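I have been asked to look over a protein record a colleague put together. Thanks in advance; the entry in question is below.
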Amino acid sequence: MFFGSLPMIFKGLWVTLGVTIACYLFAMVFGFVWVTLKRIPFKPFQWVVSFVLEFIRSTPPLVQLFFLFFGLPMVPYVGVSLSPFTVAVLGLGVHYSTYISEIYRSGIQSVDKGQWEASIALNMSVRDRWTKVILPQAIPPIIPMLGNYLIIMFKEVPLTSTVGVAGMLLMADKFGARNWAYLEPYTLVAIFFLLLSYPSAILIKKLENKMNRRFDKKDPTGAKNVKKGVAIDG
């Protein structure tokens, strides 16, 4: 039974990886949306955005998945039915985008104030200021944290089996129901998660150590290691 469940579990593995990548990319993009919204200089609007962020963070992702899949079609005048894949991407993507937005915020705030002032003094456009000065310095130090959330999301994707996403967990459940043998397929699913998550965690840890050496704690932007004005000139 152990090896008999392997084909179904392996098929579900590719679905799990695909959903993980889709959710993560959505979360990374939408994380920037939250950061942009919170930077709008209008206090009442910022309060609303902060409330929405806290509401999403404080609500279990499983409840959000259930709402999107089972509840949304019953909302008056909306009644939209979403596919399991869409529900997974929206549910987990939006949920983790709220955390990733905080990572982006910390990276942006770590950029030396002089870089902001210099880009403004050089009369750079907002687009050039962000793409050529701020983001190139803000993103590298936060890469390890983003990697950690990728691993976390990979381990959260099995929640989507509750709304019909045919990942490893759902395939194991179907095999178990068909053959009345749950121990082997669930053990195999656990082994696959271990084989993929643990080496990834080690790589992220090494990357984090490398980044800590490059961007020391007191100077997250690495400005001490770069001549003044290099980031602007680049």
Notes: Residues 217-234 have pLDDT under 50 and may be disordered.
